[in-house]
Design brief:
Helix content: 25-40%
Distance between the termini: 20 Å
Strand content: 15-25%
CATH topology of the largest domain: Aminopeptidase
Number of helices: 15
CATH architecture of the largest domain: 3-Layer(aba) Sandwich
Number of strands: 19
CATH superfamily of the largest domain: Zn peptidases
Largest sheet: 6 strands, mixed
Mean pLDDT: 92
Number of domains: 2
Radius of gyration: 23 Å
């Protein structure tokens, strides 16, 4: 899209919706719908689908059983994947076919979680102090559970969409690799998920101190590169130490990396994001946000220091995530290695990141190699029907909260879909405290109220996008 068209579209989507879905205060879902969603949520969270040690097939099979019990024919419910433990679910709710399908995506795998690291069992859905706790409560089983619960509700209510609604719960988003569900489906079963566009994770609501700030819609995302930093030498007896120590070389390299920051920059999506926030954030930071959107370096530096999220929005980041080394307590190490995980701005090339890391590390004994595949994708074009629907519904449920375009700082499976020609948009309606997002971390959680409000938001959003009045 030309820059002028992008700016006009973004300007329109930032206007608050004025057409309300209904009068009066927004309601939570009906009690029966809340109960169903919670049951599905609990079932999914309590299935150990960790990327490394778990399996996603039980999640897919559990969802399939519920859909079939609700009246979905076997022919519209598919379970399969690259290997038996890495199953994906694809379910189709038939519409009139007037328009191409809408794909609703969520991943069913989670980051590993150890009981000893948590305040409670990470694989038990725990409701406490107004929150749901458990691994995957935020990333990404809330959306997975809501998609299934809402699909069953549409079926029970006899809703007749003007396009097919496809729900895909997929494997191995958290680490990609050979069993990634979206990549496998695109290669082997594209007809099952082919759609005009997709709704996915990656966009969420931002709140500060309990106040909702914005409901973000992800239009683009960073991509991931994992590097292996490795040092090898002959080793020897620990009683005869020498300066040429593999661990010391690696430690020096990581120390230099820890003190380095990639250049600050914006793109069309992040410019729109900061311009929107400049209208609603604390007055003390508004001017800097507006100037950061225009590329003022001093303003970008100040904005980047406010929160890690804004720092990651403004630059490529690389961080050490895993270490290995040494073969005996009484021997000089023959190997020292680290994984460095980089989240790269979409406009920057892998070659640039690799060359920069080598320059920063500045040690020929430290090899720097990319591990795994590197996948990139273009941003999704602004869809006025989607943005209008999100804006209207957001203003209905949370009056005065604007809809804001964003580039997600991490990465999602939307990257594969965008590269395959299926525009993908991150939108959830779940609100998280900007300074307490616990994805991948200890005691992951989501507010109970936010889960149910997100259920309502996504139920209404999908209906609007599949019934011919989404503008």
């Amino acid at each position: 899209m030309p820059r002028s068209g992008f700016c006009v579209a973004v300007g329109r989507l930032l206007l608050f919706g004025t057409v309300l879905v209904g009068q009066g205060d927004p309601a939570m879902p009906p009690e029966a719908e809340r109960q169903l969603a919670r049951e599905i949520y609990k079932e999914m969270v309590e299935i150990k689908s960790g990327y490394t040690t778990g399996a996603t097939t039980p999640v897919a099979e559990a969802a399939a059983r519920r859909l079939k019990a609700a009246g979905f024919p076997d022919t519209d419910v598919f379970v399969g994947g690259a290997i038996p433990t890495k199953g994906n679910l694809v379910a189709r709710y038939r519409g009139t076919g007037q328009r191409r399908p809408l794909l609703l995506l969520a991943h069913s795998d989670v980051v590993e979680a150890r009981r000893e690291d948590w305040s409670m069992d990470p694989f038990t859905l725990t409701e406490r102090d107004g929150y749901f706790y458990g691994r995957g409560t935020g990333d990404d089983k809330a959306q997975a559970a809501v998609w299934i619960a809402n699909l069953i509700r549409y079926k029970r209510e006899g809703f007749k969409p003007d396009r097919d609604i496809i729900v895909a719960l997929t494997a191995d988003e958290e680490g990609g690799g050979p069993y990634n569900g979206v990549a496998w489906l695109l290669k082997n079963k594209r007809d099952l998920i082919d759609a005009e566009f997709c709704l996915n994770e990656g966009g969420w609501g931002e709140s500060v101190a309990g106040r909702r700030i914005s409901n973000d819609v992800q239009l683009s995302e960073k991509y991931v590169i994992n590097y292996r930093l490795e040092v090898t030498n002959k080793g020897g007896h620990s009683s005869l130490p020498v300066p040429d120590n593999a661990i010391y070389h690696l430690a020096g390299a990581l120390d230099r990396l820890s003190k380095f920051a990639f250049p600050l920059r914006t793109n069309e999506v992040t410019q729109a994001y900061f311009r929107a926030l400049a209208k609603i954030e604390d007055p003390s930071i508004r001017q800097d946000m507006a100037r950061a959107a225009d590329g003022a370096r001093d303003a970008m530096e100040r904005v980047a220091r406010v929160t890690p999220a804004w720092n990651a929005t403004l630059r490529t980041t690389c961080v050490a995530t895993q270490l290995e080394g040494g073969h005996a307590k009484n021997a000089l190490p023959q190997l020292a290695a680290a994984n460095v995980n980089c989240r790269v701005l979409p406009e920057e090339k892998p070659e640039y990141v690799t060359a920069t890391l080598k320059q920063v590390i500045a040690d020929e004994q430290v090899s720097v190699t990319i591990t795994g595949d590197v996948s990139t994708g273009p941003p999704s074009p602004v869809r006025q029907d989607l943005m209008s629907a999100v804006s209207t519904l957001t203003n209905t449920l949370w009056p005065g909260v604007p809809t804001v375009p964003m580039m997600v700082m991490g990465a999602t499976d939307g990257l594969y879909l965008r590269a395959a020609g299926i525009p993908t948009y991150g939108v959830q309606g779940f609100f998280y405290d900007r300074d307490d997002i616990r994805f991948h971390g200890r005691d992951e959680r989501l507010k109970v109220q936010s889960f149910y409000e997100g259920q309502t938001f996504l139920y209404e959003l999908v209906k609007r996008l599949t019934s011919g009045h989404s503008g």
